Amino acid sequence: MALRMGVLVLFAVVAVVVFLVGDKLRPKSWRHSDDEASSTMVLDLVNMFFAAIVAFVVVILWQQYDTAHAHTVSEAKGLVTVYEAANDLPDDYRIQIQGLTREYTKQVVGDEWDVMDSERRLSPDAQDTFDDLRSTVSAIPGTDPDVKALQDKADTALDAVAEARYDRALDAEYKLPGFLYIALWFGTGMLLLGTVLSGVMVTKRSVLMTALFGLVIGGVIVAIYQLDQPFAGGNTVSKEAYELAMSRFQQITSSSTVGALLPR
User: Fold this and answer.
1) Predicted model pTM
2) What integer is the mean pLDDT of 75-98?
3) CA-to-CA distance for 204 and 111, rounded, in angstroms?
4) CA-to-CA distance for 92 and 260, rounded, in angstroms?
5) Contact 157, 85 (CB under 8 A)
6) CB contact burial 73-95 (16+ within 10 A = b; e otherwise)
7) For residue 186, how many other CB atoms are within 10 A of its CB?
8) Quick one: which of 68, 77, 199, 221 is 20 to 30 A from 102 by CA?
9) DSSP alpha helices (H): ranges in 174-239?
10) What is the rounded distance in angstroms from the CA atom of residue 68 to the CA atom of residue 168?
């Protein structure tokens, strides 16, 4: 941190030295009668700096949000595949695997979602349920080729779920790097000081415009903080993928029940 501040101070000193030395060397015809041109140049640079930082930060946060959402979709799809594969297994394994799949999904959208919001981590209880699910699928006897094929299908889907769950754990811990927030607040401070350095007269109109200016900047800052942390910020990733998966579980179970009741 001290090194970074030292670099910033060094660049400020270098800029002033170049300006003062250059003023001695440049032709007098290049000089202006006032400092309005310099203030305009600085304000333009500050505006560009702030806009660039905001754009950069928003792109990073939005990409992280999309990535986190994609991980939830991948996990939910894997759970549906496991549930479908279990539907054709012998009743003992079908009931156990489908029950654990439903229980895990409910835990994710329930307690685990709250844990991600408050503690930025995954729930140990949900992890235990998922481990039980994998152990149950692995324990299926592999003598019947059809059963073995269904077991392999469920195992492959559980591998995808485990990978998506690991990615979701990383997403839950994600937070925008501190140096970007420092740059953002530095640009904000310079932007607000611009109203003083520009030399604008204090009138009712200028006060009103400055207030609107502050509202816009404040809205941008609030929006950035709302986007940060995809599972703990103000704009959290939706549970929709898991809710759709649970709806699909019910459809699979209902279809299986109707099929068993039909005459053969």
Assistant:
1) 0.78
2) 93
3) 53
4) 16
5) yes
6) bbbbbbbbbbbbbbbebeeebbe
7) 15
8) 68
9) 178-197, 204-227
10) 6
Report the C-alpha gap between 58 and 21 in whole angstroms: 40
pLDDT at 58 over 80: yes
Q: What is the pLDDT of residues 125-174, one digit of tens each?
A: 999 999 999 999 998 887 789 889 999 999 999 999 999 999 999 999 99
| Dist CA 12 CA 15 (whole Å) | 5
User: Which residues are CB-neighbours of 57 under 8 A, at least 6 positions away?
Assistant: 176, 180, 184, 224
Query: By C-alpha distance, which of 15, 243, 232 is closest to 117?
Result: 232
The single-letter code of the amino acid at 217 is I
Query: Measured between alpha carbons, how far apart are the two ends of the chain, in Å?
Result: 76
Written as six digits, the tokens of 259 are 């099929």
Rounded Cα distance, 231 and 236, in Å? 5
Token pair of 87 as six digits: 């539907």
Burial 106-121 (b: 16+ CB within 10 A, else e): ebbbeebbebbeeebe
Find the angle CA(12)-CA(53)-CA(200) to the nearest 5 degrees. 65
Note the pLDDT tens digit of each residue in 188-226.
888 887 777 666 677 888 788 878 888 888 888 888 888
Structure tokens at 175: 């937070």
Q: Which helix (H) or strand (E) holds 98?
A: helix 91-107
Number of residues written out for the chain: 264
